[in-house]
Design goal:
single chain, alpha+beta, Jelly Rolls, 7-stranded mixed sheet, 3-stranded antiparallel sheet, 7 helices, 10 strands, about 25% helix, disordered N terminus, binds fe (ii) ion
Length: about 270
């Protein structure tokens, strides 16, 4: 949290902001070399220079926050751009991860939360940690929690993994956190609304008990967008300093009705 507050000050001075974001990159490259190898991430793209976009003009800020789709892990730094509230890195899970995820998907529902110390991550209390082929999945989760901590200069992270056949968060909402990483290991990932497509005055109880589709929250019929499965999504919440009222509006996808489960990991700052 303090780190973001510090960045907020830097963001206001664009040249300093860009320099600070770039200074994070050697750490990401270290992660690439030591921990990301073979985990199904876009490895070749990681070696490229980051895709940094200019900070927004006043006109851009007036149109509201926006989503950015990025090609490399290093580009997740785009979350620090002032007008961005969603950064998405598409990827395909390694076959070894997909294999264990498929096996878990056939099993019972579970939810687990734990506090993880990134320099020495211990995921042994997760319900599937003893599965004989869990190692690639645990390594993938470890990679992302360490990248998350690297990005936000944190040592600990709150990890939650939920495997469920029920809809987790069926209504469009915002999160009361600074930022959250979301990854759907199995099943569809979350749905979201671009800023021009959402009427924030209809969020929560102000919907008057009407559904998202009836309340006027969604400004046009084809507005609902979906994060690709397995992608890494960084979502700004309402507690990002100075950006209240501009958090990502999102929800869980509807149940497919075929008994299939979603397994979703979320990471929060502590
Ligand atoms: Fe949420």
């Amino acid at each position: 949290m303090n780190f973001i507050a510090k960045h907020l000050h830097l963001i206001k001075r664009s040249s300093v902001h860009i320099a600070r974001v770039r200074s994070l990159l050697p750490s990401f490259h270290g992660l690439r070399a030591s921990r990301l190898n073979g985990l199904g991430v876009h490895m070749t793209a990681l070696a490229r220079a980051p895709v940094m976009q200019p900070l927004p003009s006043r006109t851009a800020l007036a149109t509201g926050p926006r989503a950015v789709f990025v090609p490399t892990i290093a580009d997740l730094c785009a979350i620090y751009q002032e007008d961005v509230n969603l950064v998405v890195l598409s990827r395909t899970l390694a076959p070894s991860v997909q294999s264990v995820v498929r096996e878990l998907a056939a099993g019972p529902d579970f939810t687990a939360t734990l506090r993880v110390y990134a320099p020495q991550p211990d995921l042994s209390s997760l319900p599937f940690a003893d599965h004989e082929r869990a190692a690639p999945l645990l390594a993938d989760m470890t990679c992302w929690l360490q990248a998350f901590c690297e990005l936000f200069d944190a040592e600990q992270v709150g990890l939650r993994i939920c495997h469920s056949r029920s809809v987790m968060c069926p209504r469009f909402h915002i999160d009361r956190v600074p930022v959250r990483l979301v990854c759907a290991y199995s099943g569809p990932s979350m749905q979201w609304l671009a800023e021009p497509d959402v009427d924030r005055s209809r969020l929560g109880h102000r919907a008057g008990g009407l559904s998202d589709e009836e309340s006027g929250l969604i400004r046009r019929s084809d507005a609902i967008q979906q994060i690709p499965p397995q992608a890494i999504a960084l979502c700004r919440g309402d507690s990002w300093p100075g950006r209240a009222g501009r958090a990502l509006v999102h929800r869980s996808p509807a149940n497919l009705g075929d008994g299939s489960a979603r397994m979703v990991m979320t990471l929060d700052m502590l």
